[in-house]
Design a protein that fits this description.
homotetramer, alpha/beta, Alpha-Beta Plaits, Rossmann fold, 2 domains
Chain lengths: 288, 288, 288, 288
């Protein structure tokens, strides 16, 4: 979807029951909302109904700030729904967290600069200083907060303070090589996107390219997921792979992997920014 | 979708207007139809609305044979809709047309025999006798109707007579190496599926592997499409590709291509059998 | 390579040293062997040299049965080489072991029947009787050897006796759902090819499609490997993947996976039959 | 290959004859050259032999500047060979030509800046001024040479003068939206790499995403090739594809295509820089 008129998006899930789609579409229709996109999914094992519906705000009879309440009253409460309401045309604040590898950072900043994504990037946070030059090239404030065993939680408090101060809606771990503490993660549920350099669940943890080489796989991958307190086990948003062979040294696996990583991460970010992603029980529904 | 209860499927398209989804879902809901799958799409350039909706027939208040009329009265006629109604649980009659290459034929018969597809295959038609042994192995009647310049239209009349006699709903050209006449094609609009051995529109016509070799492409493909009177230009249903290199001779392109051909063709057949495919202006909408 | 003249193939590995290629090519050249294909690889971490060289036997000055000795004397012994000598134009005996799933079996028999592979299939062995009809359709002797905890080793002795009797060179586990004992495996080192229904090392063991569904992966795969005593950890020969989404139930993952499994298995078999595969330390070098 | 010691690379082709590999390897061996990589290929239709051989210069008995002559005397002249000699460790001068789309430019400059490629980029040439800011961000001289019907050849003279002045070895058309004249192209045979935004030969010329949309393809691609005087028909170096569906508007095809374009272009550049590419009769042999 590539649209310019303002619209609203509802991401809904609830126990599956008869008539839910009809109820939701009738609600929007009755209040003069023109539906421009609707997709639904039923998880038949879990008996859960999922829906993404987008409608034009022009002519819609309910004011933006009242939609949540009216939807709750008329529908949501009756079906035990959990939902999120989004509006297009708002630029979310996105923070980047990086360490030493520049490829994902460059890729994100290039897209940002080109206007490919409707976002603001108010800051970059890093535990190393290596990439500060790139931040400077793109005129983004860079915060160097070194981390060691002793200062980790204190530095995270600093990070969170910065993120709050800059009103950040989404955090991207662009090859950030630190494990976030549970406390940090709970501040931003389903709002931290990581890129892992393997086709998870294969090769979790550190050094997946070394492991891939040792195992002699014929395909390597990259996986982007929301960060949860279970390391490398958060809900997967996007994965992709590339063929390799015995000719690939660990170094060439890394070289090929870098391209995968940056593309997979950027696709995951795109889906998140489009409000395409619903998370339920550690899995994602991606309405695209 | 892999379900066992009987359900009905509507494939709809019409000029895009406000409120269509609400109208259709309200219609189904009012008549006690439980929607189990709904997907819609708006072609924003053509301003056409597309929809696939599937609902359970158990408890639905309108008898099967009256659904078309009631839908027309209450909705279809008011929105200039074009639609098709399908019911699950009916085994369509499928005819195979082949020439000399066995790989797609084997693949289809293996799936048929394994019960992967809910179909009947009452006959195989061929312009050569080479594959009659395979038909015999799988106990399918095989009709050998040789074709030359002079007898082509007469033989096609024979073919059509056989297809009618066996009540065939779908014709699969499983590497059938004859061009069907316009008259034949018009008898079965969007009911003839062909597999072409290139990633169309590259290399249309005969000998695409030779052309791919000459051009030195790094990727070859296969394309499955509905047959129209424009050779190799019908609506594409499915395509897939595989990497090749300078090491591939024409023979090895053919070898790799055979696997592509059979898989791509079978995916296209699957979509057709699931009633996932809508055709509009030579393009397909595939609701999956 | 798709050739018809008789040729010989040497698959060699040895500690990496200067001048090995020159020595081998000089040896062949001096004895009037025309090299038609040469590929080499150096594993720079292990410092091991690998080579596949194929030359025409027409005009070659050394008789087939003396090549091994002469090569050993003039070169092999001087470089601590391990090598295997193969001749084209010989049809290896291939045994299939299956259980209940027919798709890989059908695929292999179709290729066999079409003459795609230069092999003989003297027998099919199964622990269930479900697929005996397919064997009958293709006129292959089918041995039903049911296996339970108590009779496993005894039945394996039966299987081995059958394999020896039929002079089998290669065993294909075409979704054979039993774990072979170490004793069996040691009889056929790097001569048993299995297909596993996941992109190993993700989801080893049973029920990988269920695990893939639970994990919410965006890609599923299949992996073909030589069987070793470490379950699902043998040297990988070929892997491939296909994209999936939240829309895929476990059943549809299985459906998509079946196509992957049969294609990946057949590619692995092809490489083995072409003598393209060298195994070293649980990894494969695939010269293609 | 990821090595640090200085080495030499020969890219050879000649009419296929017996004993060529032995001759070449014996030559290198006799002069104390340690072969670290050798790959050969025979085009059996054209009867042409291709070879890439790389050996260490440390200890090699022939001085760099004499290798060509000695090779010619001892071997090349006797086999009607055409060859090129390259040395690793030399940074080629690479010029970028761009117009208005920034994605390939950003991608190349990011790799350059990160040290991924061993090159110098002394200048960027553009017929528009839109991307001059990016050049400035990366501190690369930017030459704005607007082109219209009347000044085209004169401006190309300017461009060539700049390229000569900066001693450029490779020209990358990173979505440069002008057709180079034959005169320009002949100055740099197999030294101009273009990225075309379709899976050639499908959709040559302008607006391939519009054509792909109209045709309803299920896969889009990008193709990188050497520029010849036949528009979009030069030898293909690399291609890749991505799946699309009816949901993709032209704009989203473009969005997905941008990622393909930059990755495919960068892979082609990598192969060229590694001296992996041999061109013969409009096709490439890529030794990787």
């Amino acid at each position: 979807m590539d649209r310019t008129k303002p619209s609203a998006i509802l991401l809904i899930h609830c126990p599956d029951q008869k008539g839910i789609i009809a109820k939701v579409t009738e609600f929007l229709s009755r209040h003069k909302g023109n539906i421009i996109d609707l997709d639904e999914h039923v998880d038949e094992r879990e008996k859960i109904f999922f829906m993404r519906v987008e409608w034009e705000l022009d002519g819609f009879a309910i004011a933006r700030e009242e939609i949540n309440d009216r939807f709750n009253e008329e529908i949501g409460a009756h079906y035990q729904m959990v939902w999120k309401l989004h509006f297009t045309g708002q630029k979310p604040g996105v923070a980047l967290m990086v360490s030493k590898y520049p490829h994902c950072l460059y890729d994100i900043l290039s897209r940002y600069q080109s206007g490919e994504w409707e976002i603001e990037i108010p800051l970059i946070i890093s535990n190393h200083n290596d990439l500060s030059d790139i931040a400077a090239r793109f005129d983004i404030p860079f915060y160097h907060l070194p981390i060691n065993k002793d200062n980790k939680l204190a530095q995270e408090q600093q990070q969170i303070a910065l993120l709050k101060k800059h009103d950040v809606d989404l955090i991207i771990l662009a090859r950030y090589m630190q494990i976030l503490s549970g406390g940090f993660i709970k501040e931003y549920p389903n709002k931290i996107i990581n890129i892992h350099h393997s086709f998870l669940p294969a090769f979790p943890g550190a050094k997946p390219y070394h492991s891939a080489y040792q195992r002699g796989v014929k395909i390597i991958g990259a996986s982007s997921h929301y960060v949860t307190t279970e390391l490398d086990e958060g809900p997967l948003i996007e994965q992709d792979v590339v063929r390799v062979s015995h000719k690939d040294s660990i170094q060439s696996l890394m070289r090929k992997g870098r391209d995968l990583e940056k593309i997979v991460l950027s696709r995951a970010i795109w889906h998140h920014l489009q409000h395409n992603v619903l998370v339920f029980k550690n899995r994602t529904v991606i309405f695209e």
